[in-house]
Amino acid sequence: MSRPGLTARIACREDAPVLADLWSDVVRRGDRAEQVADLELVIKGAAASPEQRFVVVELDGRIAGGVFLRLTTVSPLSLEPCVQSIQPRVFDEFRRRGVGRTLMEAAVAFAEENGVLHVSTAVPATSRDANRFMARLGLAPVATVRMAPTAVLRSRITPSAPGAPRTTPRALVTRRRNQRRIRGTGPDQVQLP
Question: pTM to 2 decimals?
Fold first, then answer.
């Protein structure tokens, strides 16, 4: 049951600038115009797909939060249907007013419409409030998602040649410093020809 003044609706293209602010830390890096354009594409794609829904919640006519819903499977290996509630987010000024609960109600309604028995969500591991809220709703942790830049991961999994010094950023700086000392040139010294 939602509170008076709260309205859940399907996101429209005009919502993209506000949603870019809501998810500023999770959308692709770039200038604001690119972020808004990305969200416009996501909104358009969700509107065209019966397996996706982009929901916003308004409080007294202002967008207070949003969530992207996707009908998929629990995992590529477990083909049990699942609704993913991706990045449910509420603006700080609208917290503790039922917005988060309304977003999750939309996820449950989408699951019920599609005969799906499971709803999953992903919230930042560092957000204690969001994790406590999801736990109160009965969502238990089942996995930890970790991410790293490809280059960093490559550098950590590709073994060095036997006997070759391992080149970490710290080791590289140390090696360069030692080479400058040997040559007699440091950052404050000039080498004359």
Answer: 0.77
CATH for the 6-136 domain, from 3.40.50.2000, 3.40.50.300, 3.40.630.30, 3.40.1400.10: 3.40.630.30
Cα 130 to Cα 136: distance, rounded to the nearest angstrom: 10
The 10s digit of each residue's pLDDT in 48-104 is 999 999 999 999 999 999 999 999 999 999 999 999 999 999 999 999 999 999 999
